[in-house]
Amino acid sequence: MRVDFYQLSRDPVERVVAMLARKVLEAGERLLIVSSDADQRADLSKELWRAGPEHFLAHGEAADGQADRQPILLSDMMDAPNGARMVLLADGCWRPEALGFDRALLVFGEGETEAARALWRELDGALDVTREIHKQDEQGRWRAGG
User: What is the value of pTM for the model shown?
Assistant: First the structure.
């Protein structure tokens, strides 16, 4: 199991989530995007639609039905009826259930930095868990480290 930490510094969470969702789909995977904030999920949905016809990211809200058919599923729950083995935590809040997925992507901003650091330390040495931190430079490129 792998946990990727994405520290927001330049781009808004919606843009970063769309970029990550695109990469997941390009890899032939399905994705569960979790946020407890309904307004944030609505903003994420708009950003996923906004990508344009050549980059449209097909998705749906778990509560809207046919969740099992969605390649990208937005939800406030950690349940993945779409069969996703990857989860993206868009609200910056870690959920222990994420460890049940093959890969978890934690996107966090300045307000969640201390909690992300504590989680990093908590996962240090955990069996079957690898971690990687991703930071964005001033030109918008993401760099992996750690």
Answer: 0.94
